[in-house]
Amino acid sequence: MSSLVVIDDNVDTLDSISDYLKLKGFDVLGCGRNGLEAVQLYEKFRPDIVLLDLAMPEYDGFYGLEHIKKINSHAKVVILTGVNDEVNEKKIKVYNVTEVLEKPCSLKQLEKVLKTIKMLV
Amino acid sequence: MIHSEKIAKTLFEISPDMVAILDSDGKIIDCNRHLEINTNYRKNELIGLAGPIDLIIDEDREIATSSFKELKITNLKQNIPLRMKRKNGDVFSSIWSGSTLLNDFNELEGYLVTGKNISETQDLALKLISVKEQHRQEKLALIGEFSAKIAHDIRNPLSIVVVCLENLKMLYGANEIKQKQLDRAGRSIERITHQIEDVLNFVRERPLNVQEIILSQLISESIDSLNVPDGIKIITPKNDAKIFCDKKQFLIVLNNLILNGVQSIDDTGIIEITINESDNELKIKIKDSGSGVSKENMEKKIEPLFTTKQHGTGLGLVSVKSIIETHGGIISVSSPPTIFTITLPKNL
Questions:
Q1: Is A10 in Cβ contact with B160 (below 8 Å)?
Q2: How confident is the model at residue B304, as a pLDDT?
């Protein structure tokens, strides 16, 4: 199964999603609360997939995305966004993101996306 | 004691309405200041005119003439709307009344006619309607914004509850009783979530982001995102098609229609989705094996807030209709069995 780091500023979202993924057999290597922690966790663990929330205070998802891609341009990043407006869409396209999921996304959909990415890793 | 003639004269002069005295042939022999002021004619220009017929626009002359004829017979005629023309050509709206003036022998001596300039009142009424409408729109916009904010704020904690319930099912699902409790809670949360989505979709105005979409993929994505009970089988189309549409908005359409089918089926049943393509249009049909909709409820089905379900805002199908119409298509429903048919043009 794929290894993951999960990043979300909401601690309940973070814990419940990472518990869900662990119960589904994914290897959750770490959890972070902002874009900076995302980069630190990626550097430390080099997970197969980064599940990254976009809107976070201080260091947002774009910060995390930009710096993770600098470490490894082929890093697999799945964005979780609450508002996928035109501005965000344009910014996301620049970074060659693997998948964008609009919150709230169904767990079935999340699992399907992660399993599909696993096959490509 | 004040002479009655003086009283009459005073009333004639001070009346805020236009007042004119006509002779037995209907010609103006006297008028007050307000007829001068409103028509911009001086008294000496008004004297001798057929009043108020000579001051009426051509389109209203027939009404004025026939009303005057009736006045001769009935002795009293009231509240005739007539549009008058000023000396400079401007038109204004007025309402006229008239009575005959009879002498002691009951012989016609003349007429007394009075008119009220209602242009200002009309303008005010129109302004009031416009202001009321503006307030209504502003209020709706505020309600919309507020609803969207509440819905958005409720959505995040709700989605956490959904995930936790799934986790609990995986941890304790082996126990049937616990599983049932968790399933029940999950279904209720799902209902709330769908209602919130219905409100948000109804309130949000999103510009179309049109792209070419493979219909089978869209249908698959929609089914994946819904929690379809095990007893309900969804038959997907054997053929496929490409459509030009806004993917997110069309997902809302499919989610709503498939969910409508799921909610119409009691325990076990089938939802069948078919695609028919011709040169100019594409028909997508979603048929469910549920109880069906009565004739009287069918027309109402796509009205806001109409729902026969115990739960639900009744906004889902309204949003569906709106999205399809934005795509240049139409949606129809027939029952029984309930079949929603979406007809879309091949090119937007």
A1: yes
A2: 46
Q: Do B156 and A108 touch (CB under 8 A)?
A: no
Distance CA B167, CA B173 (A): 9
Q: Are B26 and B53 in contact (CB under 8 A)?
A: yes
For residue B246, the cross-strand partners are: B210
pLDDT in tens, B5-21: 888 888 888 899 999 99
Neighbours of A115 (CB within 10 A): 14
State the amino acid at position B155 in one-letter form.
R
| DSSP H/E element including B243 | strand B242-246
Is the alpha carbon torsion for A68, A69, A75, A78 positive or negative?
positive
Q: Which of B153, B159, B208, B234 to mutate to test the interface with A (most CBs of A within 10 A)?
A: B159
* pLDDT at site B238: 92
pLDDT tens-place string over residues A65-90: 999 999 999 999 999 887 656 667 77
Residue B159 to residue A104, Cβ atoms within 8 A: yes
Q: In what order do the strands lie in the sheet with B91-102?
A: B28-31, B18-23, B108-117, B91-102, B76-85
Cβ-based neighbours of B160, under 8 Å, separated by 6 or more = A10, A12, A13, A16
B167/A16 touch (CB, cutoff 8 Å), yes or no: yes
- ipTM associated with this complex: 0.85
Cα angle vertex B251, ends B247, B257, to 5°? 150
Task: Confirm if A8 and A56 have CB atoms less than 8 A apart.
Answer: yes
Q: Are B255 and B219 in contact (CB under 8 A)?
A: no
Q: Which of B156, B170, B209 sits opposite A10 (nearest CB)?
A: B156
Q: Write out chain B residues lying below 8 Å of A104, CB-based.
A: 155-156, 158-159, 162, 193
Query: Does the pLDDT value for residue A38 go beyond 90?
Result: yes
Would you say B210 and B246 are in contact if contact means Cβ atoms under 8 Å apart? yes
Look up the pTM and report it.
0.56
Give B35's pLDDT tier (boundaries 50, 70, 90): very high
CB A33 within 8 A of CB A57: no
pLDDT of residue B198: 76
Measured between alpha carbons, how far is B116 from A90 in angstroms, rounded to an integer? 63
Would you list the DSSP string of A2-70?
A: -EEEEE-SSHHHHHHHHHHHHHTT-EEEEEESSHHHHHHHHHHH--SEEEEES--SSS-HHHHHHHHHH
